[in-house]
Design a protein that fits this description.
287 residues, Cytochrome Bc1 Complex, Chain D, domain 2, globular, binds heme C
Length: 287
């Protein structure tokens, strides 16, 4: 299937910033159905140095784990306290129209925030607020937030569970990856990188199930809408740096610079289907 995504049953209307800010009691956003990613096998706890087996028998040369550069500390990183998820839940009401009540946006043009780490959300909101990350909608949304609000909202979304989409298992027709499926191209890169082009394995920082790392603020990617991941990778490939001055972090600019369009599409769809196999056992309803 071609880039299938979960399209919400409720069409989320693109609100103007002003209208969205007034939305104190937003309509309950439709919960993203917990779809199972058919194309993504539960990521095994494979070490970064193990290349993922490819369908065609091809082997990917694994890159050694890169030294994980810490994310630049925010210039004015002095939050009053760590985030309070309860306070954050109330504050996140203004975000529900686009990102979903629990951070699982049903409209793929808005990134999922559910399960994202507090520090990462706080950092991005700080960047929007200070104009270091440019987006017309989000600079408006972040304008009124205090550093503590950003922390609280981050803590709230961090406690929510990210749903996952379905990865694209269309077969590539031509080129060096002919006969492989899109998600397999992404899987190989995600797990093994591509040494020849200095592309590191994504799991070194974002983890085998795409959960990221809350400490150094490596964002969770698993389940993210493919279109958003494509846009972010294209931005980084084009030389975009996250943050400016003291807050600048060019880790992803380096990672993405040698990715092809096909790589990006494969990665984005693999990531959309990526999730930890943590489905709870279901009690039998009858004998
Ligand atoms: C009108 C729609 C809309 C509303 C309302 C909205 N956002 Fe966003 N948000 C977006 C869009 C669009 C993006 C993607 C921006 C980009 O591509 O850079 C985004 C991106 C983000 C990101 C970056 C995610 C990432 O993975 O880097 C965060 C964090 C975020 N929003 C938080 C919030 C919070 C908190 C609120 C409420 C206070 C909110 N948003 C309200 C549309 C919205
Ligand atoms: C050395 C660590 C490292 C490696 C390796 C790495 N990343 Fe990242 N990635 C980061 C950091 C740090 C950020 C957040 C930058 C910031 O603070 O804005 C990030 C951000 C991202 C984002 C943006 C997420 C969002 O919500 O907006 C995407 C997408 C992404 N990485 C994909 C990848 C892919 C795909 C690969 C493998 C090809 C990869 N990364 C390899 C550290 C890494």
């Amino acid at each position: 299937m071609k880039f299938s995504r979960i399209l919400g049953v409720a069409a989320v209307v693109l609100l103007t910033t002003a209208a969205a800010r007034q939305a104190t009691a937003p309509a309950p956003a439709a919960q993203a159905p917990a779809a199972t990613a058919t194309a993504s096998p539960p990521a095994a706890s494979q070490p970064a140095t193990t290349a993922a087996p490819m369908a065609g028998g091809a082997q990917v040369t694994a890159m050694p784990e890169p030294v994980t550069a810490p994310v630049a500390a925010l210039a004015d990183a002095k939050p009053a306290t760590f985030g309070d998820p309860k306070a954050g839940q109330a504050k996140a009401g203004a975000c529900a129209a686009c990102h979903g009540l629990d951070g699982n946006s049903t409209d793929p043009q808005y990134p999922r925030l559910a399960g994202q780490h507090e520090r990462y959300i706080w950092r991005q909101l700080h960047l929007f607020h200070s104009g270091q990350r440019q987006n017309a909608i989000m600079s408006g949304m972040a304008a009124a937030l205090s550093e503590q609000d950003m922390r609280d909202i981050g803590a709230y979304f961090a406690t929510q569970h990210a749903g996952a989409g379905v990865a694209d298992d269309t077969v590539i027709k031509t080129g060096p990856n002919a006969d492989k499926k899109f998600y397999q191209v992404g899987e190989a890169l995600f797990r093994g990188g591509r040494a020849a082009d200095k592309v590191p394995a994504c799991l070194a920082c974002h983890g085998p199930t795409g959960r990221g790392n809350p400490g150094p603020s490596y964002p969770a990617l698993g389940g993210q809408h493919a279109g958003y991941t494509v846009a972010r990778l294209q931005y980084f490939r084009g030389g975009g740096v996250s943050g400016t001055g003291k807050d600048a972090n060019n880790v992803m600019t380096e990672v993405a610079k040698n990715l092809s369009d096909e790589d990006i599409q494969g990665l984005a769809t693999y990531v959309e289907g990526l999730h930890a196999a943590t489905a709870p056992a279901v009690a039998a309803k009858s004998n």
